[in-house]
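[Discussion] Sanity-checking designs against the backbone

I'm trying to build intuition for which residues belong where. Below is a structure token string of 98 positions. I'd appreciate it if someone posts a full sequence so I can compare it with mine line by line.
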């Protein structure tokens, strides 16, 4: 019974990734936050950037196929954001839980 309660409690944590842009002042600014809800990704933030992610997707660098991932790919999409955005100008955090 205790294990079941702990498993349910763990699933209540929201997984999310923050995407940062280097601002003119040299500080990083969050331009989008992508979170997992019901197995799909929801991104909020800069409208043009979020629409670009939704339309174009990102590459899956976990294997040699480099296939495209989209919001519907859920956790895999979140996991791959940090590998798609890792420049000095744009970068993504590791998956965070709240």
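Best answer:
Here's mine. Compare freely.
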């Amino acid at each position: 019974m205790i294990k079941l309660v702990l498993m349910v409690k763990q699933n209540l944590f929201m997984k999310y990734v923050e995407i940062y842009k280097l601002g003119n002042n040299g500080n990083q600014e969050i331009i989008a936050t992508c979170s997992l809800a019901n197995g799909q990704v929801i991104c909020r933030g800069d409208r043009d950037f979020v629409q670009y992610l939704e339309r174009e997707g990102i590459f899956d660098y976990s294997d040699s196929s480099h296939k495209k991932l989209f919001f519907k790919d859920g956790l895999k999409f979140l996991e791959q954001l940090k590998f798609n955005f890792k420049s000095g100008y744009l970068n993504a955090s590791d998956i965070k839980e709240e």
